[in-house]
Write a structure and sequence with these properties.
12 helices, binds zinc ion, 6-stranded mixed beta sheet, 35% helix, 4-stranded antiparallel beta sheet, elongated, Alpha-Beta Plaits, Aminopeptidase, 2 domains, alpha+beta, 425 residues
Length: 425
C-alpha cells in the first residue's frame, strides 16, 4: 500500500462517526414506495453540505417508456413530487484514470407487521456492534459508506484521476426504473459499485426477476346456492399450484454452471392476495401478485411467454376458467439476469483491495435475487458489481447491519477509488 493510499484509509477512519450518523439519519426517514421525498431531501442536504452539487433526476415515463429496460408500473409518476434520484459528479483532478460510479438505493420495503419488531423500525438503535432499523442494511449504511469513501480522498488532500459519480436512486425494490433513469440521463462509468448488504463479496451473477398479476372473475351467489356460483378465490388455488410446478421445472432446466450448487436457486413468491367482499357471498373477484425469478440467459419475453402459457394451460382444466380465462399482466420488475467474470478488471481490483485490507481475497457471490446492477449490465458499460456491509434479516423484522462491516466497506471503496481512478495531488 502506498503512503497516499494509507492516508486515504486513515481519512475513512476519521469519518467513522459521520458514516454511522448518516446511516441513522437516513433510517429515520420511512422511505417506502411513494414516500421517499423526505429521505431524498436529507440526502440532498448531506451531499450539499459535503461540498457536492447533487442534481435531481426524476423518473420520467415520457422519456423512458420506449426504453427496453423501462418497467411499466401501476402507480403514477407525478412531476415535482420530490421523489427523485440524486446524482453528484466529483470532477477529476487529473486526466489519467478510469471513471467510477457508486450507486445506492434509498427506497426500503415495508416493515409490516410492526408488532414483530423489538423496537420501532424507523428509530435506529445501535447495540452490540449492530445498527437495527428498516433500511439500515438494505441499504442506507452502504450509501453512507460510499459517500464518505469519496470524501476521504479529499480529506487526505488528494484528488482523483477520473470523474466519480455518487448516485442515490429510488424504486430498486420494485422495478429498477430509478437507476435506469440516471443511466438514461447519461450517468455511467468505467466501473460501477453498489454497496448492497451481501457482505464483503464480489457479485458475479444475479438471476432475472419479474413481477406479474393474475386476476380471476367468479360468479357471485348467496352461499345458500353456492353450487351454482363460481368462487374466484378458490379458482386461484390450482393456478398457484401450476406456477409452483413451473418453478420446479425452471429450477431443473438449463441450469447455468454458477447455479449448479444451489438446491433451489429460483423462487416463486406469491406476495399479495386479494379477493371477495363478503363472507356469505361466493367471491366474484380474486387476484394475486407474484415475484418469479429466472436464470441468466433467459430473456424477459421468454419467461413472460412461459408464464402466460402455464396459466392458460391450467385454466383449460377448469370448466369455469376455460370460459372465463384469468387475466395475466406484467408490472414492476422485468429484470434479466447476468453473469460477469471475476477476472474483469474492476472486479479483480475490488477483490484485491479487500484482500489488502482484510488479508484474504473476497469470495464471489452468486445472487438469487436482482439488484440495480441490471441497468448497468444490460444497458451500460457493464463492469459492475456489488460489495457491501454485512446485514441480517433484510426485508424482515429487526433488520440489522454490522457496524464494523460498514466501515470496512467504506475503506475498500476508498482504496478502490485510489487505484481505479488514480490519486493525484
Ligand atoms: Zn437492496
Amino acid at each position: 500500500m502506498t503512503p497516499e493510499e494509507k492516508a486515504v484509509l486513515k481519512a475513512v477512519d476519521h469519518y467513522s462517526d459521520e458514516i454511522l450518523n448518516l446511516t441513522c439519519k437516513l433510517v429515520r426517514e420511512p422511505s417506502t414506495l411513494q414516500n421517499e421525498a423526505s429521505v431524498v431531501t436529507v440526502m440532498e442536504n448531506e451531499l450539499t453540505s459535503l461540498g457536492y452539487s447533487p442534481v435531481r433526476i426524476p423518473i420520467d415515463p415520457e422519456k423512458l417508456e420506449n426504453h427496453p429496460g423501462f418497467a411499466p408500473v401501476d402507480w403514477e409518476y407525478r412531476k415535482n413530487d420530490g421523489r427523485d434520484n440524486l446524482v453528484a459528479v466529483i470532477k477529476a483532478a487529473g486526466s489519467e484514470g478510469r471513471s467510477a460510479l457508486f450507486n445506492g438505493h434509498l427506497d426500503v420495503v415495508s416493515p409490516e407487521p410492526l408488532s414483530y419488531w423489538s423496537s420501532p423500525p424507523y428509530e435506529p438503535v445501535s447495540q452490540d456492534g449492530w445498527i437495527f432499523g428498516r433500511g439500515a442494511g438494505d441499504m442506507k449504511s452502504g450509501i453512507a459508506a460510499m459517500v464518505y469513501a469519496a470524501k476521504a480522498v479529499e480529506r487526505a488532500g488528494l484528488g482523483l484521476g477520473a470523474d466519480l459519480t455518487l448516485e442515490t436512486v429510488l424504486e430498486e425494490e420494485c422495478c429498477g426504473n430509478g437507476a435506469l433513469a440516471c443511466l438514461y440521463a447519461g450517468y455511467d462509468a468505467d466501473a460501477v459499485l453498489i454497496p448492497e448488504p451481501f457482505g464483503p463479496t464480489v457479485l458475479t451473477s444475479q438471476v432475472g426477476v419479474l413481477w406479474f398479476r393474475i386476476e380471476v372473475s367468479g360468479k357471485p351467489r348467496h352461499v345458500l346456492e353456492a353450487g351454482v356460483g363460481s368462487n374466484a378465490i378458490e379458482k386461484c388455488f390450482p393456478l398457484i399450484q401450476s406456477l409452483r410446478n413451473l418453478e420446479e421445472e425452471l429450477n431443473h432446466s438449463h441450469v447455468p454452471e454458477e447455479y449448479k450448487d444451489f438446491s433451489h436457486p429460483l423462487n416463486l413468491n406469491v406476495g399479495i392476495i386479494r379477493g371477495g367482499d363478503w363472507p356469505s357471498t361466493v367471491a366474484a373477484f380474486a387476484g394475486f401478485d407474484c415475484r418469479m425469478s429466472f436464470f441468466p440467459g433467459m430473456s424477459f419475453d421468454k419467461i413472460k411467454e412461459v408464464i402466460i402459457r402455464t396459466i392458460a394451460k391450467s385454466a383449460q382444466k377448469d370448466p369455469w376458467l376455460r370460459l372465463n380465462p384469468p387475466r395475466t399482466t406484467f408490472f414492476g420488475f422485468r429484470s434479466e439476469g447476468h453473469t460477469i467474470s471475476q477476472d474483469t478488471p474492476a472486479l479483480s481490483m475490488l477483490s484485491k483491495c479487500h484482500k489488502d485490507i482484510a488479508g484474504e481475497p473476497a469470495d464471489k457471490y452468486i445472487a438469487t435475487c436482482t439488484t440495480d446492477l441490471r441497468a448497468f449490465m444490460s444497458f451500460g458499460k457493464g463492469q459492475a458489481t456489488c460489495f457491501g456491509p454485512v446485514a441480517e434479516r433484510i426485508h424482515a423484522e429487526n433488520e440489522k447491519v454490522n457496524i464494523e462491516s460498514i466501515i470496512h466497506t467504506a475503506r475498500v471503496y476508498a482504496l478502490f477509488l485510489s487505484r481505479w481512478c488514480g490519486l493525484c495531488s
